[in-house]
């Protein structure tokens, strides 16, 4: 059997194994796979080969009033940039059991209220999907189910039913007869995705792929799979956590900074309309707790920062953070030691962000330092207080982007004090703004 090698990161092909990819310079990224062969006169390209002559761009017709299709879930519409675009191809990935198939089945049911939807499953039987649909309360006559792995038969059924929306669950489970390799192999994933994508573009049908992920959290298969689709969505969150975050890493039709927040219930995934109320539990009633405001895309919401500082019982002090970059935590601890003269070397430090959310923006630095000081002194902070600001290496506090939106979110939930590094022009007699320029000014005020 003829074999070939190609790079998992960029798709570069080679007839022999290479330690370093000459295209993307990635090391140890080449994988051996079966070469595409033709059985008889079969060819994968004829399945959706709709050739056309080249025409001037000025002759291309487009309806500017063509609206997006609402998925029925406002959180998903927000992540997609306003809704589903006709003809778009999206890939949704995540850990096993996090809710990929659940949300796709829910979206298919909502769209089936006024459209014809085809749900293709290559991993489960019709009885298994029926059992899940009964648990979710789904029983729509316009929702068609096809349990099939063969792409040729899937395309034939698409031609017969002429659906308005298609879900393939999952792309690693389907295969082409013309490729002499197992389903889920790199060559099968690449070719099957290519064939189905061309079909969706030609028929102008929205198509969603469900994708498995590797142990590193990336979508299984070649990186070229993510380049082929229009939108890439990832489900984040611990399997034991009730909150799931849907984040977009690629979107040709919208922003890549938006997130959608869902809560896993016995009836499926439920939208979290007001995440601030979900992520704030104690509101500074205990030591080591502070409130901050994070910005994800166009959405601002409050989050609870929890810190625990305790004497170490081992030789080396521990530095553990959940939902926060560990190197950033080490940096802030060094800033505290130098500017506040606190000995943190012999103390264990544990950081956690409520709700299982992962924070990457620096706007929570000030709240994190306030929580650390609160736990260090074992004194709780004042209630209804929010900390918003970035901390520099010399201990200075800097303003962050879109402060007005963050402040409005804090005011909406009734917070009375806001610590920040800039002047806020908000006329509200019930709110007191503390302008702090350095972390050395923080201790005397918050306690």
Query: Count the strands?
Result: 21
**Poorly predicted ranges:** 37-42
CATH-derived topology of the largest domain: Rossmann fold
**N→C terminal distance:** 74 Å
Please count the helical segments.
Answer: 11
What does this entry show, briefly?
This protein has 447 residues and is α/β, with parallel strands linked by helices.
Structural commentary:
There is one protein chain. By secondary structure, the protein is an alpha/beta fold. The chain folds into three domains: 1-35; 68-271, Rossmann fold (3-Layer(aba) Sandwich); 277-446, 2-Layer Sandwich (Ribosomal Protein S5, domain 2). It is 25% helix and 25% strand. The chain has eleven helices and 21 strands. It has helices spanning 74-80, 100-111, 126-136, 151-161, 186-203, 224-228, 275-279, 326-340, 365-377, 403-412, 442-446; strands spanning 3-7, 13-14, 30-34, 89-93, 117-121, 143-147, 165-169, 207-211, 231-236, 243-251, 259-265, 268-271, 289-296, 299-311, 319-322, 347-353, 385-387, 390-391, 397-398, 417-420, 432-435. A nine-stranded mixed beta sheet has the order 6-5-7-8-4-9-10-11-12, with helices on both faces. Strands 13-14-16-15 form a four-stranded mixed beta sheet. A hairpin with a 5-residue loop joins β18 and β19. The longest helix has 18 residues, at 186-203. The radius of gyration is 26 Å and the shape is globular. The N and C termini lie far apart (74 Å). Residues 37-42 have low confidence and may be disordered.
List the helices and strands and how they pair.
Blueprint: E1 3-7, E2 13-14, E3 30-34, H1 74-80, E4 89-93, H2 100-111, E5 117-121, H3 126-136, E6 143-147, H4 151-161, E7 165-169, H5 186-203, E8 207-211, H6 224-228, E9 231-236, E10 243-251, E11 259-265, E12 268-271, H7 275-279, E13 289-296, E14 299-311, E15 319-322, H8 326-340, E16 347-353, H9 365-377, E17 385-387, E18 390-391, E19 397-398, H10 403-412, E20 417-420, E21 432-435, H11 442-446
């Amino acid at each position: 059997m003829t074999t070939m090698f190609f790079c998992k990161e960029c798709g570069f092909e080679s007839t022999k194994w290479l330690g370093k990819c000459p295209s993307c310079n990635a090391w140890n990224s080449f994988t051996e796979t079966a070469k595409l062969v033709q059985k008889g006169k079969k060819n994968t390209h004829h399945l959706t080969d709709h050739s056309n002559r080249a025409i001037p761009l000025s002759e291309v017709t487009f309806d500017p009033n063509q609206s997006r299709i609402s998925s029925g879930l406002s959180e998903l519409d927000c992540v997609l940039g306003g809704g589903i675009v006709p003809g778009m191809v999206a890939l949704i990935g995540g850990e096993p059991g996090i809710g990929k198939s659940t949300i796709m089945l829910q979206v298919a049911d909502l769209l089936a209220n006024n459209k014809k939807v085809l749900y293709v499953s290559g991993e489960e039987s019709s009885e298994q999907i029926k059992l899940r649909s009964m648990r979710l309360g789904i029983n729509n006559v316009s929702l068609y189910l096809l349990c099939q792995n063969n792409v040729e038969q899937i395309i034939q059924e698409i031609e017969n039913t002429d659906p308005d929306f298609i879900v393939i669950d999952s792309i690693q489970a389907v295969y082409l007869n013309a490729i002499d390799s197992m389903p889920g192999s790199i060559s099968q994933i690449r070719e099957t995705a290519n064939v189905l994508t061309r079909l969706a573009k030609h028929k102008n049908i929205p198509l969603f792929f469900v994708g498995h992920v590797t142990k590193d959290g990336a979508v299984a298969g070649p990186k070229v799979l993510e380049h082929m689709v229009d939108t890439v969505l990832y489900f984040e969150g611990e399997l034991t956590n009730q909150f799931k975050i849907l984040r977009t890493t690629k979107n040709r039709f919208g922003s890549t900074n938006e997130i959608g927040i869902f809560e896993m219930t016995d009836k499926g995934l439920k939208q979290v309309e007001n995440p601030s109320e979900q992520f704030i539990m104690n509101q500074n009633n205990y030591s080591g707790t502070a409130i901050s405001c994070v910005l994800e895309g166009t959405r601002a919401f409050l989050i609870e920062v929890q810190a625990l500082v305790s004497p170490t019982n081992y030789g080396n002090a521990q530095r553990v953070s959940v939902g926060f970059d560990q190197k950033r935590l080490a940096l802030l601890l060094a800033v505290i030691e130098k500017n506040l003269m606190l000995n943190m070397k012999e103390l264990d430090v544990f950081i956690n962000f409520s709700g299982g959310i992962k924070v990457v923006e620096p706007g929570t630095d000030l709240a994190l330092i306030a929580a650390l000081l609160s736990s260090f002194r074992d004194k709780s902070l004042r209630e209804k207080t929010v900390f918003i600001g970035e901390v520099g290496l010399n201990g200075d506090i800097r303003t962050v982007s879109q402060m007005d939106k963050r402040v409005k979110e804090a005011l909406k939930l009734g917070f009375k004090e806001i610590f920040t590094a800039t002047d806020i022009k908000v006329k509200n007699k019930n709110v007191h703004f503390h302008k702090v320029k350095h972390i050395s000014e923080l201790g005397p005020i918050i306690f």
